[in-house]
Each structure stands twice: as C-alpha cells, then as structure tokens.
Specification:
Number of helices: 6
Helix content: 55-70%
Distance between the termini: 18 Å
Largest sheet: none
Structural class: mainly alpha
Order of helices and strands: HHHHHH
Number of strands: 0
Mean pLDDT: 74
Low-confidence stretches: 1-17
Shape: elongated
Radius of gyration: 17 Å
C-alpha cells in the first residue's frame, strides 16, 4: 500500500477533518519523512559496509521486500517526545499547521495517528524506491 492510498483511505475514514488540515499535515509529514529516509540511506553504508553501493542497495531492497526486521527496524521512526533538541514534538508540528484551528481534540489525535503512520510508510517507500532505482534504473 503506498502513501497516497493510505492518505486517501484515512481521509475517507475521518470525514470531520477539514481539507486544509489534511493538506497541511500531508505536506509536513512527506517533507520530514523524506529527509529522514535520505539520512538513513546515508547511514546504510556505515551500518553494513559492503564493496559497492549496488551490493548495499541489493541487500536493503531484498531485506525490506521480505519485511526483515534487521532492515525494517533500522528505518527511522517519528519521535515526537521532544527528547532530542532538534526533533519535532507534536506541539511544534501543530504550531506550524495553522489549518488545524477548527479541529477538536479528537480530530487532533486522529491527525497525530495519521502523521505517525504516514511518516513510517513514506520512509519505507522512499528507501525501497531508492534502492530499486539503484539496482534497476529509473522507475517508469
């Protein structure tokens, strides 16, 4: 299931969410997840040093395709605890999303769940797609 599907499904199951809040959240999570995925791709070479980037991509692509925990557990997860100084908190994310002003607390909680699940899926898809492109060339 790709991110567009997840976001489409989620938007139909949360009918009270206004479109502006949904769009703002989607843009925020996509940007942050892609950045986390790129950082993770850079780190792959130090975690599993191999002779070539092709071998590295093949190792990760196959591991992610199998849903092997050795690989999936190393993908970045969203951390909204505020434990790290440069990491976002849910409050800091909400502060950037001006479109959420009309949402009640239940809808804000649903947005948080959506943010986390979308982040995870975007990271997974981006890493998998990058490895696939390295192995097989540009996707159609």
């Amino acid at each position: 299931m790709n991110v567009v599907t997840i976001l489409s499904i989620t938007s139909t199951t949360i009918p009270a969410m206004n479109d502006d809040a949904y769009t703002a959240l989607r843009e925020s999570v996509m940007e942050e997840a892609r950045s986390a995925a790129i950082e993770q791709l850079d780190g792959f070479y130090t975690e599993f040093p191999l002779d070539s980037s092709h071998e590295q991509a093949e190792l990760w692509y196959e591991g992610l395709q199998r849903q092997d925990g050795i690989f999936t557990d190393r993908l970045p997860n969203v951390d909204l605890t505020g434990q790290w100084a440069d990491a976002p908190t849910w409050d800091s994310i909400l502060a950037r999303l001006t479109a959420i002003e009309d949402l009640d607390s239940e809808e804000v909680d649903e947005l948080a769940d959506l943010y986390v699940s979308t982040f995870d899926q975007v990271v997974y898809n981006h890493v998998l797609s990058t490895c696939k492109t390295m192995l097989y060339g540009k996707e159609d």
